[in-house]
Amino acid sequence: MTQPLISHALGLHMHQPPGNLKLLIDHHESDAELIIRCYERAVRYAQQFKDVGNIHVGFSGILLEQFLDPEMIDRYRKFIDIPAMLESYRNAQNVELIGMGYYHPVFPLIPQEDWKEHLIRGRQIIEEVFGRAPKGFWPPEMAFCMEMIPAIADAGYEYVIVDGVHVQPDNDGPVDIYQPYKATYEGSTITVIPRERDVSNAQESGMDAIWFTQEVQHKVKSSPNPEQPRLVTTWSDGENGGWFRQMSEESAFYGHFWSPLINKIKNGEVPIRSVSLSEYIKEHPPTESAFVRTGAWNVGTTSGFDFSQWAGSEQQKEGAEAIRQVSQRYWQLLESEEQLSEEDKKTLKEARELILEGETSCFLFWGDDWVPKLYERTEPAFNLLNQLQESSGGNI
Questions:
Q1: How far from each other are the two terminal CA atoms of the chain, in whole angstroms?
Q2: Own/partner pairs for 298-302, CB < 8 Å, 24+ apart?
Q3: Cβ-Cβ contacts under 8 Å for 186 (sequence gap 6 or more)
Q4: Is the whole model's pTM more than 0.90, yes or no?
Q5: CA–CA separation, 338 and 299 (whole Å)
Q6: Phi/psi of residue 309, each to 5°?
Q7: 185 pairs with which residues across the strands?
Q8: What does the alpha-carbon distance between residue 193 and residue 87 come to, in Å, rounded to a whole number?
Q9: Per residue in 58-80, pLDDT tens?
């Protein structure tokens, strides 16, 4: 039996927490250069292989916001021209842009009432910066639960990437992570793309085209439906770790792995093609349904089967609870927005921005050392909301 052509969807996740580009250039300039060059490198290599290579790149809204900051544009100009880089992405039709939550929150750990704004604003800024709206959604930290489906679909997304270890087919058959599925919750349906965790781990740390080709062929051959069209989806950070930050490009991700692989594909040397997920779904729409267990991706020593990386310590749990409380307070006051003066409405909006910013996953991800950054947002937000309450004489 001839093995079918394998389709490979490569994804890169790009994010920096609020103010981090400034922090880096102020205090860690060498790291700032290594990181900023990663963003330019992805589109530059994509342009070199626009006839055959496809890359999916997800930008958080807050990272794009920093790219648009005139101060950051000026200070990083010694390394790259940020506006020119953004224009390259705008013109690169073989780069499929992926949406995220604006401030990169762990969605299952924040109030559901806050989901919509992260989703819509994250999608809008990509459309504003690049001239086209993203069709796919990458949940920050790959933190997903079925309850998110209606909100993601309502925001305009066609598909969502989830970690393959969490996928469970509805027919109780064997899990097949090499195909898209349909997932439905409360009447809303979205296409689910399982991420290949093992090969994604290699993508994050280092591999070459020969190993990749042999590994995916072996995995596909051992899959539940090897005779059907096979989709191997790999996803990792695109700017973290020495593999991506390596200044000697021939020894790093693009020079050592991606360029050789795409050249082999171009020359017909391997039974693999590089695909865009939105185009692949058009060719092979999902026919089977699945349930996706609540979970995240594997980071560090964690499995991703729970949220221990973000809510394992008491300080992390208390931080998440602070977010819940201040958000709840905001929504209560919003019900009385019509009673507020224009100045008070501005105060309410200022508090809202602090709450959403406080939901950035990094403040929980980096453990107790970064939780104080969360409180730097929630405490002023509480103060502003208290100020509103007092100025109304307690009538709202």
A1: 71
A2: 298/163, 298/197, 298/201, 299/141, 299/365
A3: 149, 150
A4: yes
A5: 45
A6: -65, -25
A7: 188
A8: 28
A9: 999 999 999 999 999 999 999 99
Whether the Cβ atoms of residue 249 and residue 41 lie closer than 8 Å to each other: yes
Q: Which of helix, strand or coil describes residue 84?
A: helix
Question: Distance between CA atoms of 156 and 137, rounded to whole angstroms?
Answer: 10
How crowded is the C-beta side of 72, counted as CA atoms within 13 Å? 19
CA 290 to CA 58: how far, in whole Å? 24
Residue-wise pLDDT tens digits, 230-286: 999 999 999 999 999 999 999 999 999 999 999 999 999 999 999 999 999 999 999
Find residue 55's DSSP bridge partners.
Answer: 95
Only one residue has tokens 């990181």, namely 35
**CB burial string 130-155: b at 16+ within 10 A, e below:** beeebbbbbbbbbbbbeebbbbbbeb
Rg (Cα) of the chain, in Å, rounded? Answer: 22
Please name the residues in contact with 257: beta carbons below 8 A apart, sequence gap of 6 or more: 203, 206, 207, 208, 209, 212
Is the distance from CB of 323 to CB of 349 less than 8 angstroms? no
Q: CA angle at residue 102 from 282 to 154, to 5 degrees?
A: 45
